[in-house]
Amino acid sequence: MVRIELYGVPRLRAGVQAVDVQASTIGDALLQLQRACPQLEPDVLTGGKLNAAYVVAIDGGTLTRDPQVPLNAGDTLVLLTSQAGG
User: Fold this and answer.
1) Quick one: which of 9, 69, 73 has its CA closest to 41?
2) Fewer CB near the terminus (10 Å): N or C of the chain?
3) Cβ distance 79 to 32 under 8 Å?
4) Predicted structure pTM score
5) What is the model's pLDDT at position 84?
6) Contacts of 85 (CB under 8 A, 6+ apart)
7) Is the pLDDT assigned to residue 36 strictly greater than 50?
């Protein structure tokens, strides 16, 4: 099981804080996220792929958009906007 945490616009659109999915890659996880939260299309996800404004953080570290990155059971993905500032 992989947990995908949502913040900001994705959380508001989806109406949930997190979604648990069975996935072996980032691409698998995003496709399942889109199926579970179709309201994320088209602004966040399209065809199971992240739109240009978003990246995924894996376990609070690696930032990626690569759908081929492998995942392990227990990983946590955080969907982030790449345009955030502070």
Assistant:
1) 9
2) C
3) no
4) 0.90
5) 52
6) none
7) yes
- Residues in contact with 24: Cβ distance below 8 Å, sequence separation at least 6, in sequence order: 70, 71
Q: Which pLDDT score is estimated for 86? A: 43
Domain range list for the chain: 2-81
Helix residue spans in 26-66 (DSSP H): 26-36
Which residues 6+ apart lie within 8 Å of 34 measured at CB? Answer: 40, 41, 45, 47, 48
Distance CA 15, CA 6 (A): 9
Instruction: Give the pLDDT confidence score for residue 47 in this predicted structure.
Output: 84
- Between CA 41 and CA 48 the distance in angstroms is 9
How far is it, in rounded angstroms, from Cα 32 to Cα 24? 11
Superfamily of domain 2-81: Beta-grasp domain (3.10.20.30)
- Sign of the torsion angle spanned by Cα atoms 57, 27, 38, 46: positive
